[in-house]
Amino acid sequence: MTKPSKPRSGKTSFSSSAPARDDGELRIIGGRWRGRKLRFPSLPGLRPSPDRVRETLFNWLAPELPGARCLDLFAGSGALGLEALSRGAAMCTFVDSARAACARIDAHLTLLDCADGRVHNADVAQWLQSAPADSVRYDMVFLDPPFRQDLLGACCERLEHDGWLTPHAWIYMEAGTDEALPPLPPSWRLHRDKRAGQVAYRLFVRDVIAADDKA
Q1: Higher pLDDT, 209 or 212
Q2: Is 85 exposed, middle or buried (CB count within 10 Å of its CB: 0-12, 13-18, 19+)?
Q3: Cβ contacts of residue 149 below 8 Å, gap of 6+?
Q4: Under 8 Å CB-to-CB from 45, ≥6 apart: which residues?
Q5: Which residues contact 88 (CB under 8 A, 6 or more apart)?
Q6: Angstrom distance (rounded) from CA 81 to CA 68
Q7: What SS3 state is found at 105?
Q8: Helical H runs in the chain?
């Protein structure tokens, strides 16, 4: 894959706010940055995917990661997108509404000497209303929104119908175990799912040809 020529930060500027203090640490589990520990800011609702959840997820995705174009929505600490880049993804776009979270992800990309990440400080639903930049279609999407805020449905609809996904894209979702999933596109087939504590995590694969055959 050709590396993106754009700078790490996207066009959306970080909104002004008071700096957030560091209150946590995440560890890259595998790949070229295996074992690297990165700090993330203390922000309401920011909860990186637990290590065991990420380890399971990236074991599931291992054959698909090399060269994949990834989209990390509600990126928070950036744990999922950074793990993907560490394991061979070609590029990752990070989107989050929190200025401090985006600034920290951008700093991590600089620290790791990684030119394959783009960071957008924006509301995810609004950002998805725009056309995909540079005709990018994503092979892999990580959806880990704040729990119990009914955010998944609109995002899934826009991802499916607004041209963001490749025909056989992988879509990962995290939600609370007490949350019902919204209606999903018929082309999305559940591949794997598990629970860890109060977190339910699911991996879907998009199969446009099969969905068309059923129509």
Answers
A1: 209
A2: buried
A3: none
A4: 76, 146, 147
A5: 31, 65, 66, 67, 68
A6: 11
A7: helix
A8: 51-61, 79-86, 99-111, 124-128, 152-161, 208-214
> Coil, strand, or helix at residue 69?
strand
pLDDT digits over 174-191, tens only? 988 888 889 999 999 999
Report all structural domains of the chain as residue ranges with CATH numbers, in order of start: 22-214 (3.40.50.150)
- Cα–Cα distances in Å, from 49 out to 22, 57, 100? 17, 10, 18
Residue 106's φ and ψ, nearest 5 degrees, are -60, -40
Q: Which pTM was predicted?
A: 0.85
User: What is the token pair recorded at 116?
Assistant: 């394959």
- The two tokens of residue 196 are 């860890």
pLDDT of residue 132: 67
Q: Specify which of 86-90, 125-129, 130-134 reaches the highest per-range mean pLDDT.
A: 86-90
Contact yes or no for 13/106 (Cβ under 8 A): no
| Residues 123/149, Cβ–Cβ less than 8 Å | no
CA distance linking residue 77 with residue 25, whole number of Å: 9
